[in-house]
Write a structure and sequence with these properties.
- By secondary structure, the protein is α/β, with parallel strands linked by helices.
- The protein has one domain: Purple Acid Phosphatase, chain A, domain 2.
- The protein has helices at residues 2-7, 37-54, 74-88, 98-107, 111-127, 133-138, 141-151, 154-161, 190-195, 198-201, 234-237, and strands at 25-30, 58-63, 92-94, 167-169, 172-174, 210-213, 222-223, 227-229, 241-246, 249-254.
- The strands form two sheets. A five-stranded mixed sheet has the order 3-2-1-9-10.
- Strand 1, helix 2 (37-54) and strand 2 form a beta-alpha-beta unit.
- Helix 4 packs across helix 5 (111-127) and helix 5 crosses helix 7 (141-151).
- The longest helix has 18 residues, at 37-54.
- 40% of the residues are buried.
């Protein structure tokens, strides 16, 4: 069941064209990056060009979480995200994904969570810092847990700890994984916002906002009547996707894949 969900083809688009943003606002929502700094830089270049072409607006960038793990340069992605936060201030937003949650938990020194972190792609994240594959392979899990306390920069950890669980703009709610059906955005638990999958993906009932999310990989953008999924598996497909919104208009920018 889960395996089928992860790589199934998108459903046909449903009529969701009534959702809107406040006048003068423009939003670029970026899907799961998973350590692909190269793709992030490409997509940001496309966003800058697109934003300039469309003229002045109150432009916001929303990162839907899972900046790290699986891909080769998680440290570089976090560095780039910090640069953006310093440049754009309140106009750039970062959401806490399940991989950020485990990254922070592993940094706290729990050996069991470090083991889980490595299992879900954390090995690649660790190797993007100042440690060689040879040293990594030589360490026991206990030793690796201790090594992480000095390996992961406090600047990165403090930055990621500041990520939010949801962002609401106009008729849209931006989250990492999804929401628990039947509950308002304000009632949602962080666990569901970061981890939910089948209960959200398979539900077709309307929500109080149109949900924009990542977390569940599809071959291309998935538009449904109650949600838009934009995790296009960048770390393995080469396609990193941004949903672009202004008024009732909706378009997409993608890297090649």
């Amino acid at each position: 069941m889960l395996k089928a969900l992860l790589r199934r083809k998108p459903k046909p688009a449903a009529p969701i064209d009534t959702a809107t943003l406040p006048d003068g606002q423009r939003v670029y929502a970026i899907g799961d990056i998973h350590g692909r700094r190269d793709l992030l830089d490409q997509l940001l270049d496309k966003i800058v060009m697109d934003d300039r072409m469309r003229g002045p607006a109150d432009t916001h960038i929303v990162f839907l979480g899972d900046l790290m793990d699986r891909g080769p340069d998680s440290a570089g992605v976090i560095d780039r995200a910090i640069e953006l936060s310093e440049t754009l201030g309140d106009n750039v937003h970062f959401l806490m994904g399940n991989h950020e949650e485990v990254y922070l938990a592993a940094a706290d020194g729990d050996e069991k969570l470090v083991r889980f972190f490595c299992k879900i792609g954390g090995r690649e994240t660790i190797l993007s810092y100042d440690i060689s594959p040879q040293e990594y392979n030589s360490l026991s899990m206990e030793e690796l847990t201790e090594r992480l306390t000095t390996l992961l920069p406090q600047r990165h950890l403090e930055f990621v700890r500041g990520f939010k669980d949801r962002i609401v703009m106009g008729d849209y709610a931006f989250v990492h994984a999804g929401i628990r059906p039947g509950k308002s955005i304000e009632e949602q638990r962080p666990k569901d916002l970061r981890w939910i999958r089948e209960d959200f993906i398979l539900d077709e009932t309307p929500h109080d906002k149109l949900i924009v999310h990542g977390h569940t990989i599809t071959d291309d953008v998935e538009e449904c009547s109650n949600r838009i999924g934009i995790d296009t598996g960048a770390y393995m497909s080469g396609m990193l996707t941004a949903l672009c919104l202004e008024g009732r208009e909706r378009w997409y920018l993608k890297t090649g894949g």
